[in-house]
Amino acid sequence: AQSVTQPDIHITVSEGASLELRCNYSYGATPYLFWYVQSPGQGLQLLLKYFSGDTLVQGIKGFEAEFKRSQSSFNLRKPSVHWSDAAEYFCAVGARSGGSNYKLTFGKGTLLTVNP
Amino acid sequence: DARVTQTPRDKVTEMGQEVTMRCQPILGHNTVFWYRQTMKQGLELLAYFRNRAPLDDSGMPKDRFSAEMPDATLATLKIQPSEPRDSAVYFCASAPPNSYEQYFGPGTRLTVT
């Protein structure tokens, strides 16, 4: 079964600074990969996804993520963080096989605080 | 703008009472997921349905939780009797056919006193 690790529980950055949130997955093949964001009191919103092809994917709100097969990673980046980016971020993985159940396995999340 | 809707948004109830949470998936989506989110456990998958049929409910405490899809536009999650440890935010998500992209509702915040 697949699993997802987000090593950082909480990250604090200053507004305007760059951001990288880490995500490592465990799966026997190349999985489907996702990043979701959850603002306080809200549901999860899809930021971006990787299925195949170009390993650098662009998402909404200026975010991007890079799939690195050799490192089993799918880290989320943003060159300049805005105060409105303060939220919790979840990495998720979906298996390409296993009966196409289309379930996602979510990481525990990384809480992002943005200082003015 | 199609969205998943959930009712109620907030529910406070006393231990032992029955709680029913409702979810309306996005029209055309055929898979519905129920999740529970707590600070301690994070996001847990409770159950999910495809084409209204339950596919997996192994994440649910069977003695008190039940999930159903009476029709394609309504999914329900029921807790009877409720306990303080059930206090959490419950999310519904739906997905279109043959897709991993899940669209989440705003959640129901349940407090059991």
Q: Kindly state the mean pLDDT of chain A as a whole number? A: 92
Strand content of chain B: over 45%
Q: What Rg of chain A is obtained from the alpha carbons, in whole angstroms?
A: 14 Å
In whole angstroms, the N-to-C terminal distance of chain B is: 36 Å
Contiguous uncertain segments of 5+ residues of chain A? none
How is the secondary structure organized here?
The complex is a heterodimer of chains A (116) and B (113).
Chain A: E1 3-5, E2 10-14, E3 19-21, E4 24-26, E5 32-38, E6 44-50, E7 56-58, E8 64-68, E9 73-78, E10 87-94, E11 104-106, E12 110-115
Chain B: E1 5-7, E2 10-13, E3 19-24, E4 31-38, E5 42-50, E6 53-56, E7 65-71, E8 74-79, E9 88-95, E10 103-104, E11 108-112
Parallel strand pairs in B: 2-11
Antiparallel strand pairs in B: 1-3, 3-8, 4-5, 4-9, 5-6, 7-8, 9-10, 9-11
Describe the structure.
The complex is a heterodimer of chains A (116) and B (113). Helices cover 0% and strands 51% of the residues of chain A. With 116 residues, chain A is an all-beta fold. In chain A, strands 2, 5, 6, 10, 11 and 12 form a six-stranded mixed β-sheet that branches. In chain A, strands 3-9-8-7 form a four-stranded antiparallel β-sheet, with no helix packed on it. In chain A, a hairpin with a 5-residue loop joins β7 and β8 (64-68). Chain A is globular and about 40 Å long. Chain B is mostly beta strands and 113 residues long. Chain B is built from no helices and eleven strands. Chain B has strands at 5-7, 10-13, 19-24, 31-38, 42-50, 53-56, 65-71, 74-79, 88-95, 103-104, 108-112. In chain B, the strands form two sheets. In chain B, strands 2, 4, 5, 6, 9, 10 and 11 form a seven-stranded mixed β-sheet that branches. Chain B is globular. The relative contact order of chain B is 0.34. The mean pLDDT of chain B is 94. The interface between A and B is medium-sized, with 20 and 22 residues.
